[in-house]
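Structure representation.

___
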Amino acid sequence: MKVNLVVILLSFSFLLGCKEEKKTPKSDPVKVDNVAEIENDKPADLSELRIEKPENIVAPKGMVWIPGGIFTQGAVPQDEMAMGHEKPAHQVAVDGFFMDATEVTNAQFKKFIAETGYETLAERAPDWEEMKSQLPPGTPKPHDSIMQAGSLTFKKTKSPVNDMRDFSQWWGWTIGASWRNPNGPDTSIKGKENYPVVHIAYEDALAYCKWANRRLPTEAEWERAARGKKEATYSWGDDESVLTQMANTWEGQFPVTNTKDDGFEQRAPVKSYEPNDFGLYDMAGNVWEWTSDWYNTKYYKALMNTGGAVRNPSGAENPFNERDRYAREKIMKGGSFLCNASYCASYRSSSRMATSLDSSLEHLGFRTVATPEMIEISKNK
């Protein structure tokens, strides 16, 4: 479920800043004005759609080929839990691409840090001058005890929650929490090298992609990969009864009791569950994953109105959230170990949530993709 940083962090008297990101280079964008008119692109010529992996390209280590094709993006008819922003379902076409078989792990991210010296957003002390520009005039500077590096961590409640809209009941700002210390300064990733890296803000994911010569998937690519060879509710099909065998989610009463029927209460090592048809692990549950698309509540309707499958859609040109017109959010997919049927059931393939670019959370990570052209460039460097 999306955590609203404004609601939570303003309770601590500050808001983390956002930074502008690079746009995904591959695109047939549908232009969606964030206030009024929608200009629709025409359906793309699909005669040259790349489906099979080029014979001269070897899959990079840890990546699998996702064949190109046309599929229906959005809520499937049999999904009774689908939310309004997962509709209308619409056809899109994507060229084949390579995708990480797993979420980026602590070990992989640690190597990136060692080679670049990069510091994640969660590890940087808040800049008051930058934050002040985003707050109402006259907002007093928070106490120095609060103005320290940290991130958002989950905490169980002691009793059932009546208002599920109040995220601050189970999310809290933890000083010292970061990818190195996922549950606070007294925790570490020692012995958890094969767990997904978390507390990754959007700019952190982009920095890793630049280092690895990869990029984040578009929402269409991510959903194509998650669905596998089926147009079903879940990445494994439509059978919800096997959820505990197929994904790391929340069993029990959220956010009070987790029965751990799937074997884990928090994050699970990658490859703890069976892969989908394409050989991808954890496309449902475990941790949310960034995509490169802006969240725009008008975008699906715009795609539907094109009259055919748009090729390689890269998302709306502008962000727009009808509940918050000032929001600048990206789409995350896949759900996490905190998803429960009574709350969000976001382990469904069509599920999508908006999150601010500066969101850094203990259940948010990413995986990367690469095109054959990107791999050719790497080979020739």
Notes: Residues 1-135+147-381 form a domain with the paralog of FGE (formylglycine-generating enzyme) fold (CATH 3.90.1580.10).
